Amino acid sequence: MFDAISVWDKRTDLPDSPFDLGFLAEAMLFYGHVHVFVGRVDLERLINAFGPELLIEYLREELFTLTYVSNATGVRTENGVHLVDVIEIGGQDLQRIAPALMVAATGRAGKGRRTAKRFMELCKQTRFGAVGAFVAQHRAHTKSDRRG
After folding, report:
1. Strand 72-78 relative to strand 81-87, pairing
2. Coil, helix or strand for 33?
3. Which of 105, 100, 111 has the alpha carbon at shortest distance from 52?
4. Residues with Cβ < 8 Å from 141, sequence gap 6 or more?
5. Structural contact between residues 33 and 59, judged by C-beta atoms closer than 8 angstroms
6. Cα(145)–Cα(128) distance, integer angstroms
7. Helices (DSSP H) in the chain: which residue ranges?
8. 3-state secondary structure of 83
9. Model pTM greater than 0.85?
10. Which range marks the domain in which residue 35 is found?
11. What pLDDT sits at residue 85?
12. What are the respective helix, strand and coil percentages of the chain, to the nearest 5?
């Protein structure tokens, strides 16, 4: 078994496709710890795949951990030169996205907001640019947990 893996489900060719649960399950079998990074679309897919309550239970039991990435990468063109850049989209922070997704998943405003609050206690948030530092910090934390 391997120590840990960080994954990002990027099946952008099929925007309406479900989250790849087979890949997640396989990673959970072969790695001691699985950390999943999601954007808004992937978070919605994950909630729809597990359902809000089961997702929260899995996160609480630390079957895998989850980080929401609130911005994105893209390509911009300046004077014929293509450059990779970070894209900031307003209103994409977890505190706005999670309640809306949980209300949609539960079909009830009050229950959705309460579910989102429990979910946000278990999900971290970061931004592109900080993802590499987060992975390095997580890797060091995982190694220290094994020694202790």
Report:
1. antiparallel
2. strand
3. 105
4. none
5. no
6. 26
7. 21-30, 40-50, 52-60, 94-106, 109-120, 131-147
8. strand
9. no
10. 2-147
11. 72
12. 50, 25, 25
Quick one: tokens of 25? Answer: 């399950």
The domain total for the chain is 1
Residue 49 has a CB neighbour count (10 Å cut-off) of: 14
Predicted local distance difference test score (pLDDT) of residue 147: 44
Half-sphere exposure of 70 (CA within 13 A, CB side): 16
Alpha carbon distance 126, 68 (integer Å): 6
Distance CA 109, CA 103 (A): 5
Q: So what's the pLDDT on residue 32?
A: 83
What is the pLDDT, as a whole number, of residue 121? 96
CA distance 21 to 138: 23
Rounded Cα distance, 102 and 119, in Å: 9
Mean per-residue pLDDT pooled into runs of 10, the chain (148 residues): 65 68 87 88 91 96 91 79 76 91 96 97 82 56 50
Q: Kindly tell me the number of DSSP H helices and DSSP E strands found in the chain.
A: 6, 6
CA 39, CA 42: separation in Å to the nearest integer?
5
